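A protein record in our archive is deliberately plain, so that people and models can read it alike. The record that follows is passed on verbatim for readers who wish to inspect the format.
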Amino acid sequence: NSKNTTSNKHTNSENKSALVNGKSNTVTQNTSGDDTNSLNNSTEINSETLAKTNSKVTSNDTLKTDQLNKADTKVADTNNPLNNTGEDKTETQIDEKEINSPTNSIETAIAEANPINEKEKENQDRWSIAPSVAPVYYNSLTSGSTIGSQFNTNSSSNDINMSYGLKGSYALSNSLKLRAGINVVNLNYTTNDVIVYSGSGAAARGVTGQSNNIVLRPEMSSVTILSRTIINSDSAPEIVNTKYNGTLDQRFSYIELPLELEYEVIDASINLNVIGGFSALFLNSNEIYADIEGTNTLIGESNNINNTSYTANFGIGLSYGITEHLNLNLEPTFKYQINGFNNTSGDFQPFFVGLYSGISFK
């Protein structure tokens, strides 16, 4: 029994040891399994962590790159005042500095004024003004007389008179100008082969001569006016034959208002222009002088000269530039008078020509 008991104990001890070993193996196996799972899980976690880390690094790199790009863009925007939102501020700052700078303010004012000055200069250059002086000669294109029919065939001789005034012009284009002005024109028309004498003896001897177109002054009421061309010297009274040939001189002046166009034909050192237009003439003075006994005497005036008349004008102009603003002008001009007289004899067609000259300023 004792042996059996001992044997049983020994067997139980071995069984316990085996049980313990089995449990230990089981624990070991379980532990090994758990360790494997833990390792796998750890590996998966590390992979995820690494992926996340890499993603964060990539994101950080991308973010830094974006930030760098934005920083570069801001620097570019700052350096270039024409871009984006920095434009107004930069320009405003620059403008404020420029405005606050006295030099820039003066330069800006000058620059802004220059277009106006150029326009004003151009407008001023279009205008020119000039005094006008001319010797003028008055005559008729055909025969006839303003005094009376007995003088139709008489010869005439006219003096050179003067016209003087002021004219202005405006350039409508580079080659066309509109001109206007005011002149005083002095004219005369002298009839030759005239016998003029005074005294009551003429009427007593049957010598009468007068013109319906002459209004004599009161003190000249006894004056007799005859044309030598119609007198028969054989039958004429002695008082007539003993008189020498005299003249009858009509003197009159006008205020002239010309309105003309001037067209430039040749633009060179000496410009050539053609001139056309008309003038209004307003009678300023009207006198008739006669040669009586060798003395030139005022006897009256014409009653058939109109207070208002007109002329058709045509001329050639020569212009030479002395300086940028001064021109020397020479203009021979023909003016045909319209409606100068009424109740004339024959076919009297008056005209006058003038050689107009002056220095124009623009």
In short: Confidence is low (pLDDT under 50) at residues 1-46, 81-92, 202-208. The first strand starts at residue 127 and ends at 140. Residues 2-79 form the longest helix (78 residues). The radius of gyration is 61 Å.
